[in-house]
Amino acid sequence: MRTRNLEIPGLVLTDHPGMTVPDNGARRTMLEIRNLAKSFGGVKATNDVSLDFAEGSLTAVIGPNGAGKSTFFNLITGALRPDSGQILLHGVDLAGRSPPEIVRHGVGRAFQVASIFKSLTVQETMLAAVSADQGTSAVLHKRFPLPETRHRAEHVLELLGLAGKRHRTAATLSHGDQKLLDIALALVLEPKVLLLDEPTAGMGPEERWRMIDKVRELWDTQKITVVFIEHDMDIVFKIAPKIVVLCYGRILATGTPDEIRNNSAVIDAYLGTEHAGAAA
Amino acid sequence: MTELEAGRAQTLVPVRSAAALQRYRDVLIALIAFAVLASLPLFTGSKALLDFVIRCSAYGLFATSLNLLVGYTGLISFGHGMFFGLGAYSFGLIMQKLGVPIPMAFVTTLAITTVVAAIIGAICVRLKEIYFAFVTLAFQMLIHSTILSWASFTGGDQGLRGGIPRPVFLGIDLSNHVHLYVTSCALLILGLLAMRQIAQSPFGYTLRMIRDNAARASFLGIDVWRAKLAVFVLAALFASMGGMVMALFVSGAYPEFAYWTISGEAIFINMLGGVSTFLGPMVGTVLLLLLNDTVTRFTEYHGIVLGIVILFFALGLRKGLLDFAADWFAHRRETGEGR
Question: What is the predicted ipTM?
Answer without folding.
Answer: 0.80
